[in-house]
Amino acid sequence: MFYRESGDFSTTYPQDSQTFPIRFDRYRYYAVLAVAFLVIPFIINDYWANAVFVPFLIYAIAAIGLNILTGYCGQVSLGTGAFMAVGAYSCYKLMTAFPEISIVIHVILSGGITAAVVTLFGLPSLRIKGFYLAVATLAAQFFLVWLFNKVGWFYNYSASGQISAPERSVFGIIVTGPNTEAWAKYMICLIFVTLCALIARNLTRGSVGRRWMAIRDMDIAAEIIGVNPMGAKLTAFMVSGFFVGIAGALFFSVYLGAAEVGESFGIDKSFLVLFMIIIGGLGSIFGSFAGAAFMVLLPVFLKNVFVGGLGWPTDLAAHLQFIVSGGLIIMFLIMEPHGLAQLWRLAKEKLRLWPFPH
Amino acid sequence: MPEQFLFATEVVLNGLMAGVLYALVALGFVLIYKASGIFNYAQGVMALFAALTLVGIMDGQVPFSHLINAIFGTEIHHFGWHVPALLAILLTIGVMVVLAWAVQRFIFRHLVNQEPILLFMATIGLAYFLEGVGDLMWGSDIKKLDVGLPQGINDWIDVTTFEAFGYGFFIDNLDISATIVAIILVGALIAFSQYTKQGRALRAVADDHQAALSVGISLNFIWILVWSIAGFVALVAGIMWGAKSGVQFSLSLIALKALPVLMLGGFTSIPGAIVGGLIIGVGEKLFEFLIGPMVGGATENWFAYVLALIFLVFRPQGLFGEKIIERV
Question: Phi-psi category of B230—alpha, beta or left, where left has phi over 0 and alpha has psi -120 to 50?
């Protein structure tokens, strides 16, 4: 009743090929954007920004990036953490080397640098497939983390080996450094997320995306019908690297403020982002958001229940969090291998008929 | 003989010993992969879980004491008895068999016929789950594991080599016993798969699932069996690594050490796991010894991966892996 397609007529080609052809979907999308841009910035406080919204938005970008590579192109990557580190460190180097240039340009440039690095590590994918490739991306994970730890140039030879974001502003509003207001952090991440999601959504709908999906479904068959596997795989690595790099740059400069590579960008991060796209749904932009929201909210929720509600010690809650997230992954894979995105699709099917079953 | 050469020889010997331990972990991966096509990321965590359980049983710890104390406000920690090592090992094997059954019954039975990559992700979930359960059951503090294996420098080798070359080799007794145990284990596994009915059934399943089914082999039983064997191998690896560096979270990271070994040797080959383990063990120790000081050390973390990666570009199925044939 609420969700319906009837009465929705396309009279022009652009109308027919728009992102959300169904009116209800389109209005829902505008409503979400309106709330995100016009309501939340005015009511957000430090706790909500730091614990929920900012990590959610940044992980959403990373999840979109990994989803393009794994969900759309079928190349499993376990190096996301290190690729985020590439974004973070290039952002840091750019911020300190060219302080007069806007941070927005630095973030985009770090995305570009990460894209180049990820494409380099994607080269073996032309020879290696499946598990072998997944393990091969671990080489990137360990090598890059080691590199950022050992080579002083990357962290400007600081004594602690950490990198910390200097204060930078956009249009006179401080967005990095300790004096940043909650809403400013939120807004810069939101703007990047919106743009990234738009780009990703349109890329995956277009010919590039269809080539990725052909490679994912069966690479040899795709090659026979004229998809260039090298081009498709490398563009997937490149685009994925660009998004992951932006996520890494924002994660370091806006969210963390100061980072140490082994701790902030270790292999745990790779798995976290991988879990996000599994739980959210492989091959779905909405799924990337849903998965990121789920994995960001889960620890907050569990902590509030176990520590805040039941008064248990924090380490116990941390162990239970491992059990719950591991169990949920397995449960999702068994019950709904296509993730939250599929649940949403099913809900829409149900809503279409509700409340009349036929 | 020049001193540098003697140092290098010592490094190679120690690398071989480390390689045996890597091979031990890799073996567990290969067994499960061959029999069920599941790439079991949780193998390292299984080793940690087995070692934790062993220590817990030996010390008479109360399982889940932490959780029980938090819920009921009690203060229980130990039963107050000590279990001899051999009995504790037997009990731990029992726990691992139960775990194998549970994994098969509650996870992989529901995932039959899914894509391999989904199965792989399920094992990552299993790894997180087991890690949490292990910590919750036995506590997350670092524990000492002592099942009576000899430890410390081997004096005989030290003295003999000193008399022969004027330089005493440092070789840990624990590494020697690990090598012996690994050789026995591999021998036992080969004997099991060659001469017993279940072993033959296991090889049949590894060759072809459907053909094995059609001659009346129970896939379910074989899968539980192979997860139990992998659990047993994990226990052995857990004992060896646990005795070496204490039972703690980092033990589960040996899975990450075993992955390049697998890539190098091929996912489907037991000799591959052993040869790969030795190559990686020697390679990373030698690289750290020769090149490490020039680039700032701690190269052991990534050297194995990069070596395996370069290797794979030339031989995508690893040293001994089955040739990958793709059909449309």
Answer: alpha
For the record, the structure tokens of B286 come out as 């030698």
* Nearest chain B Cα distance for residue A276, angstroms: 12
SS3 content of chain A, % helix, strand, coil (to 5): 75, 0, 25
For the domain made up of B3-314, give the CATH fold: ABC transporter involved in vitamin B12 uptake, BtuC (1.10.3470)
Domain extent listing, chain B: 3-314
Spatial contact of A139 and B313, defined as CB atoms under 8 Å apart:
no
Contacts of A267 in chain B (CB under 8 A): 256
ipTM (interface predicted TM): 0.81
Helix axes B65-72, A314-335, angle to 10 degrees: 110
B169-228 pLDDT, tens per residue?
A: 777 777 788 888 888 888 888 888 888 888 888 888 877 778 888 998 888 888 888 889
**Long-range contact set of residues B174-179: C-beta below 8 Å, sequence gap at least 24:** B174/B149, B174/B150, B174/B240, B174/B243, B174/B244, B175/B14, B175/B17, B175/B18, B175/B20, B175/B21, B176/B17, B177/B149, B177/B150, B178/B17, B178/B20, B178/B21, B178/B24, B178/B240, B179/B16, B179/B17, B179/B20
How close is the nearest chain A Cα to the Cα of B155, in Å?
Answer: 36
Give the nearest partner residue to A322 out of B114, B132, B302, using CB atoms.
B132
Determine what percent of chain A is predicted with pLDDT higher than 90: 27
The confidence score (pLDDT) of residue A64 equals 94
- Candidates B32, B37, B27; CA nearest to B278 is B27
Pick from B17, B70, B241: which is nearest to B142 by CA? B241
* pLDDT at residue B16 greater than cutoff 80: yes
Reference A322, options A284, A358, A275, A290; nearest CA is A275
Q: Hey, of A142, A147, A155, A342, which one would you mutate to test binding to chain B, going by the most B CBs within 10 A of its CB?
A: A142
For the cut 80, the answer to whether the pLDDT of residue A326 exceeds it is yes
- Identify the DSSP state of B249: G
Q: Is B325 on the interface with A (CB under 8 A)?
A: no
Residue ranges per structural domain of chain A: 44-266
Residues B52-110: tens digit of each pLDDT: 888 888 887 777 777 777 777 777 777 777 778 788 888 889 999 999 999 888 888 88
| Single pTM value for the model | 0.87
Q: In the prediction, which pLDDT does A58 show?
A: 93
B169 class by beta-carbon count within 10 Å (0-12 exposed, 13-18 middle, 19+ buried): buried
